[in-house]
Amino acid sequence: MKTYLAKVGEIERQYVLFDASEASVGRLAVKIANALRGKDKPTYTPHIDTGDFVVVINAENAVLTGNKGTEKEYESYSGYRGGRKIVTADVVRAKHPERIIKEAVWGMLPKGRLGRAMYRKLKVYPGMEHPHAAQKPVKVSL
Q1: Residue 135 sits in a domain of what CATH number?
Q2: Residue 6 located in a structural domain
């Protein structure tokens, strides 16, 4: 037997649809990260991007368990003195609900060129509507 290593030209990608309504953010992010990396396929190769495109809908209805709404903080730094901003998860959910899922998934992907290529295949939308209906995404149940 030989170990199979996927080649870049052999990869067949499809669109996968996740519905984030009433789903825990962490458990959802694990499934999304695995689909982006391709770990749910038998052709998974660690150094090649073998994952699918992922579309997430209803991001505004994703659940943060416990006191994470008020206690979880998202930090950004502009590079200037005094340019550190800290915002709670409730404020982020009110303004940009898709960022909560994007931040959770980004933390689970590899850092570097390969991880950035995987992250670009993630599309998150706050409501039910998405512009990827023509690609006929396969709905994944959680």
Answers
A1: 3.90.1180.10
A2: no
Residue 71 lies in a domain: no
d(CA 25, CA 105): 9
Q: Residues 6 or more apart from 113 whose CB is under 8 A from it?
A: none
Are 28 and 63 in contact, with CB atoms under 8 Å apart?
no
Of 1, 18, 8, give the one whose Cα is nearest residue 122.
Answer: 18
Residue 121 in domain = yes
Please determine, for residue 21, whether its predicted confidence score (pLDDT) is greater than 90.
yes
Q: For 94-104, what is each residue's pLDDT tens digit? A: 999 999 999 99
Residue 76 in any domain: the answer is: no
* 8 Å CB contact between 36 and 101: no
pLDDT digits (tens, 9 = 90+) for 55-70: 999 999 999 999 999 9
Give yes or no for a contact between 101 and 31, defined as CB atoms under 8 angstroms apart: no
Q: How many domains does the chain have?
A: 1
| Domain range for 33 | 12-64+95-140
